[in-house]
Design goal:
The chain is an alpha/beta fold. It has two domains: about 5-115 and about 230-305, FAD/NAD(P)-binding domain (3-Layer(bba) Sandwich); about 125-225, FAD/NAD(P)-binding domain (3-Layer(bba) Sandwich), CATH 3.50.50.60. Helix content is about 25%, strand content about 25%. It is built from seven helices and 19 strands. It has helices at about 15-25, 60-70, 135-140, 155-165, 180-190, 235-240, 280-305; strands at about 5-10, 30-35, 75-80, 85-90, 90-95, 100-110, 115, 130-135, 145-150, 170-175, 195, 200-205, 210-215, 220, 225, 230-235, 245, 250-255, 265-270. The longest helix is centred in the last third of the chain and has 25 residues, at about 280-305. The protein starts with 6 loop residues before the first strand and ends with a helix. The chain binds flavin-adenine dinucleotide (FAD). Flavin-adenine dinucleotide binds near residues 35 and 82.
């Protein structure tokens, strides 16, 4: 990657947010290095939905197209790798990959995403992104109605069950969680059934779900299962750089201002790692905001020098 002359920006994470930021800077003829480990959050799903004018396209396909479009800009370099170190140095930031390559940038954008921490229910992880889902706007329509489960894993369980009732007949598998009388009444008004017995496993052929096997031996038939899994940062870099975080009901996000600048001067953050709620459209808009914000900051520095 070389570190002899600093890039205007190094973008860590080359998925929806990172590539969107890169495009704004490419069009401003700025020198940008994007380093990406190639693990976008939605890699488990074959199709992406709800994206303006691109409904139903594959996530991988969208990213490949974005990379091809960026490759036409001479000031952009796209590199594959995992950044394991990032630190402030004179004039910017130094990053180092797992294979020991180094690069410097006047500014940094963290577009590193988040990781879903799935509950350890046998049969759940292999169905993630197929019939075990997190977002009804992304995948609810394709279920086509009928019996749908929601597995309670945290504070958003009742809210998620109430929402998903617009997509089918919902059973909320409480799995050890208690709901007070007001929540139960709200769920009843939304025609949500509460199943108190613990879920032992998800059963079915391949990715299909025949039903949820309960601790008392019953098999409750559902076509799909929603889980609002807790999340964590996909990368420790924001913490390493000293960025502040905000809490959300599902996990931490990097604190940013309206232009996606973090609490560390010169470090921007965009996409799932730095906003809630999260989806492709929000992540791309976030990346655009970070790219434009960073460009304006470069200009302000150059005008003042
Ligand atoms: C199963 C599933 C299905 C989904 N379906 C949809 C859908 O249909 N429609 C929709 O709008 N949204 C969908 N989403 C949400 C969508 O995936 C995210 O909102 C979107 O991927 C966020 O983009 P991002 O660029 O912020 O992060 P990500 O797409 O997660 O990309 C982060 C990138 O940074 C890289 N990275 C991380 N750390 C490092 C490092 N240290 N060095 C280098 N690279 C690094 C990762 O490898 C990855 O490539 C889905 C999510 C899931 C879990």
């Amino acid at each position: 990657m070389g570190n002899s002359s600093p890039h205007d920006a190094v973008i860590i994470g080359g998925s929806f947010a990172g590539l969107s930021a890169a495009m704004q800077l490419a069009r401003a003829r700025r020198h940008v290095l994007v380093i990406d480990a190639g693990q976008p959050r939605n890699r488990f799903a074959d199709h992406s939905h709800g994206v303006f004018a691109l409904d139903g396209r594959s996530g991988d396909g969208l990213l490949a197209e974005a990379r091809a479009q960026l490759a036409a800009y001479p000031t952009i370099r796209l590199a594959r790798g995992e950044v394991v170190q990032a630190s402030a140095v004179d004039g910017g930031f130094l990053v180092e990959t797992a294979t020991g390559e180094r690069a410097t940038g006047r500014r940094l954008i963290l577009a590193t995403g988040i990781a879903d921490q799935l509950p350890e229910v046998p049969g759940l992880a292999p169905r993630w992104g197929k019939t075990v889902l997190h977002c009804p706007y992304c995948h609810g329509y394709e279920i086509g109605g009928g019996p749908i489960g929601v597995l309670a894993t945290g504070p958003l369980a009742a809210h998620q069950a109430s929402l998903i009732a617009d997509w089918g007949n919902v059973t909320l598998f409480a799995n050890g969680m208690d709901f007070d009388a007001d929540i139960r009444a709200m769920l009843a008004r939304r025609s949500v059934t509460i199943e108190p017995v613990r879920v032992e496993a998800i059963e079915g052929e391949a990715a299909a779900i025949a039903g949820l096997r309960l601790a008392d031996g019953r098999l409750v038939a559902v076509k799909a299962l929603f889980v609002a899994a807790p999340t964590r940062m996909a990368s420790p870099l924001a913490e390493m750089l000293g960025c502040a975080f905000d809490s959300t009901p599902l996990g931490p996000i990097i604190r940013t201002d309206a232009w996606k600048l973090t609490t560390v001067a010169g470090v921007y953050a965009a996409g799932d790692a730095a906003r809630a709620p999260q989806n492709i459209t929000f992540a791309t808009a976030d990346g655009v905001t970070a790219g434009v914000g960073l460009h304006h900051q470069l200009i302000a520095d150059e005008a003042a020098a």
